[in-house]
Amino acid sequence: MGFAAFMGGLFSTLKFIGRSLGHVAAPVVKAIVQGARDFVNGVVIGFNEGMRDEPKSAQERNERELQQVNEEIMALREIHKRQGGLNDQQKRRHAILKERRDVLNQEISAIDKFSTAEEIVQEGKNYHPIVISDANAHILQYHVGQSAYNKLCQCGRVMVLQWNRSVATAGLNDFFWGCSGYYIKVDGRSVCHRTQKLTTDDLNLFANLNRPEFEIDSASLTRETINPVRARRIRQALDSIKGAQQSERIGIATYRCPVHGESLRLRRKNQSSDQLLDEYFLGCPRWLPDNAGCNFLVKLKSAAQISSVLDSEQRQGVLSV
Ligand SMILES: [Zn+2]
Ligand SMILES: [Zn+2]
Q1: Measured between alpha carbons, how far is 5 from 106 in angstroms, rounded to an integer?
Q2: pLDDT tens over the chain, length 321 residues
Q3: Ligand 2 geometric centre to CA of 164 (Å)
Q4: Cβ atoms of 259 and 294 closer than 8 Å
Q5: Is 158 helix (H, G, I), strand (E, B) or coil?
Q6: Class of residue 12 by CB neighbours under 10 A (exposed 0-12, middle 13-18, buried 19+)
Q7: Are 149 and 16 a contacting pair, CB within 8 Å?
Q8: How far apart are the CA of 56 and the centre of ligand 1, in A?
Q9: Relative to the alpha carbon of 194, which ligand is closest?
Q10: For residue 282, which ligand has an atom nearest its CA?
């Protein structure tokens, strides 16, 4: 039995982004931590008999299988394009693969939720209610592009937190939700273009505030990050994460492609740039040249996002590098 079978109520009523941000009215934070604890205990008890793997190794196994499934789906797509169709056997195989991908995605999402709940239990005392304003908008920005739970578009697909990237320092009005259907193209056109404004409710958060980056304001964080000496150390740290991901063929688990489910890979732009705030991005491993693959990507255009990537891989943000 998989993790998805144990999913309880915690995530059916609350929105979560990544591992450390929840949308909830301030007075019930205690109840959330308790809810996370019950949830984690429930999963652990449920697994005591039939558990095959620890969540972490189960997640890696799922991800490896997902890679193979996606590769095979894309190979069939290639055949379809070349020959103008698939034969019956290929069609059956395609249907089986798509079904398997749905199951794996559900399982991966369930284990990610489990890790989120674990983090809330372990870090409970560092979680505090906070109201996002222009001055601390980087707390929201830190989570841009991370997997969001329970925030769905009218079309049923998950929505991804986005921000208007043409502005240097984002204010509250620059954030919005965008449907992940934007990244699914049929005949070159996105299947869904819907966006939603953030509501006041979306700005009432509870978050793990135990990060030096959250103790200063947005503008100071940007200034500290692009300081040339620090920028050099940040580049070294990012390049070493990138190298490790290439050799292990696995990405950053807090960021997943909403279409393929695989963890995103840290990449550096080809054209040389010394602009740290637009030098790296996270891309789907199913990317192919000439728009032949997946175009989902998260640009790392802010100090907060770079901090989040460092934090999820090395447990340190930009200010501790
Ligand atoms: Zn949609
Ligand atoms: Zn993708």
Answers
A1: 10
A2: 566 666 666 666 666 777 667 665 554 666 777 777 887 777 776 666 555 567 778 888 999 999 999 999 999 999 998 999 999 999 999 999 999 999 999 888 888 888 888 888 888 888 888 888 888 888 888 888 887 777 889 999 888 888 887 776 778 888 899 998 998 888 878 999 999 998 887 887 878 888 899 899 888 999 999 999 999 999 999 999 999 998 888 899 889 998 899 999 999 987 666 688 889 999 999 998 877 788 888 989 889 999 999 998 888 889 988
A3: 21
A4: yes
A5: strand
A6: exposed
A7: yes
A8: 31
A9: 1
A10: 2
What separation, in Å, do the N-terminal and C-terminal C-alpha atoms of the chain show?
A: 41
Helix, strand and coil percent figures for the chain, each rounded to 5: 50, 15, 30
Report the separation in Å between the CA atom of 304 and the middle of ligand 1, taken as the mean of its atom positions.
27
Instruction: To the nearest 10°, report the CA torsion of 136, 141, 143, 144.
Output: 160
Cα-to-centroid distance, 229 and ligand 2 (Å): 35
Sheet-wide strand order for 280-283 = 252-256, 263-268, 280-283, 297-299
Dihedral sign for Cα atoms in the order 103, 106, 112, 116: negative
> How far is ligand 2, taken at its centre, from the CA of residue 115, in Å?
22
How far apart are the CA of 212 and the centre of ligand 2, in A?
Answer: 32
Distance from residue 108's CA to the centre of ligand 1 (Å) = 21
Enter the pTM of the model: 0.86
Lookup: tokens for 89: 């056997």
Distance 13 CA to ligand 2 centre (A): 27
The domain spans of the chain are 212-314
Residue 18 CB contacts under 8 Å (≥ 6 apart), including other chains: 116, 143, 146, 147, 148, 254, 308
Distance 196 CA to ligand 1 centre (A): 10
